[in-house]
Amino acid sequence: MKNYFKHHRISVRSGVGFVWFFACLLSFMQSCYAAPLHSGFFAGVGIARETVQYGFTRVADGPLLPGAPYTVHLTDNNSRLQVPEFVVGYQYLFGQLYLGAQFVRGYRSQTLNGQYNMHYQSNDGLYNYDYLYTTRIQMSDPMALDAMVGWSPLPSLVVYAEGGVSYIKVYDEFNKFYNNRRRNDGYVNSGEGDHINLHRIGEEIGLGAAYQATQHLQVRADYKLTNYGRMSYNAVMFGGYTSHKQFVLRTETASLDVVYTFG
Hints:
Layout: H1 2-6, H2 9-30, E1 40-61, E2 70-94, E3 97-106, E4 109-121, E5 128-154, E6 157-180, E7 188-212, E8 217-236, E9 242-261
């Protein structure tokens, strides 16, 4: 987790810039009309801009596998999407000190696709194949629980840091296709594939700001980095060889929510 955020300083700067711009905009709006922040529960909906990053590695070996052992790499794949979300939480103000907790539930099912091409030819010429490996990773049912600590520089404005845990369900699927160059009959599905369902808990940190527009209407902006860590598993494939897979999932999320504050 430490190395992940160390290598994503640009992303962190972008998050700081996003929250800072939002806070400056709202402090300007403070001069127009605003209501003071107050302790209590809040609930609402919003939209999140999410960037998904993943890296994928597969190592295969076995007595009947030409070219074994070999490694397939799929890295630096990105996918961006808009995600509707529901948020509910509680905020407490002690003077200018802001404490809170929030639960966020996203509604989306996102699929990431990648492929890798490889050619193998044996010394005796009996084997002369092109291989195409495809992977599909589907993520669904995201949710997160965060704690918040911040400061209220203005009666209606608060900026805060947040951290917590995030859950996601992952479905991973792998397939292999081949083309016999001696016949050149095009790619054929080898029938060798594997898949698995995983449930992952990730760590996340972020920054946020909230603006109390009216007595019960609040606008919130958050920027969070989430790391779901390294996932791996083994499978026995056709021909008696083993397939070891591992992949890494990370997300960067900028969200804007409108919530109703009770009390």
